[in-house]
Automatic annotation (TrEMBL):
This is Uncharacterized protein. It comes from Lacihabitans soyangensis. It comes from the Bacteria.
Length: 98
C-alpha cells in the first residue's frame, strides 16, 4: 500500500491511499464496453448525465453519480475499482456530449 499527499493541519492528518491505478488500459476497456451498450441504455445514460448536470446540490450530484455507476454495473459493464463515480460521469459526459 502506498500513501501520498499527506497533509497535517490543526492536528488532523489527511492522506490519500493509493491502492488502485487508473491507466489508459482501464479507461480504454471501459469506453469499449460503453460503446457496445444498446441504444435504449444510451438514452438512460444521457438522462443520468442530464440529471447530474442540472442538479445544484453537491450531495445529490454525488448520489446520482453513484446511481449511474450502479446502473452501468447492473447492465453488464465491468468497472475497475480504480474508476470513481465522478471519473465515470466525466468519461460518459465526454463520450455523449453533442
Amino acid at each position: 500500500m502506498k500513501f501520498g499527499n499527506i497533509n497535517i493541519k490543526n492536528s488532523t492528518v489527511n492522506f490519500n491511499e493509493n491502492n488502485f491505478d487508473v491507466n489508459s488500459k482501464v479507461i480504454t476497456e471501459f469506453i469499449s464496453q460503453v460503446k457496445d451498450i444498446g441504444v435504449d441504455k444510451v438514452k438512460s445514460i444521457k438522462n443520468h448525465i442530464e440529471d447530474i448536470e442540472n442538479n445544484e446540490s453537491l450531495e445529490v450530484k454525488e448520489h446520482r453519480k453513484n446511481s449511474l455507476k450502479e446502473f452501468l454495473i447492473s447492465n453488464g459493464i465491468a468497472i475497475s475499482q480504480s474508476l470513481t463515480a465522478s471519473a465515470i460521469f466525466e468519461l460518459l459526459k465526454f463520450l455523449y456530449s453533442n
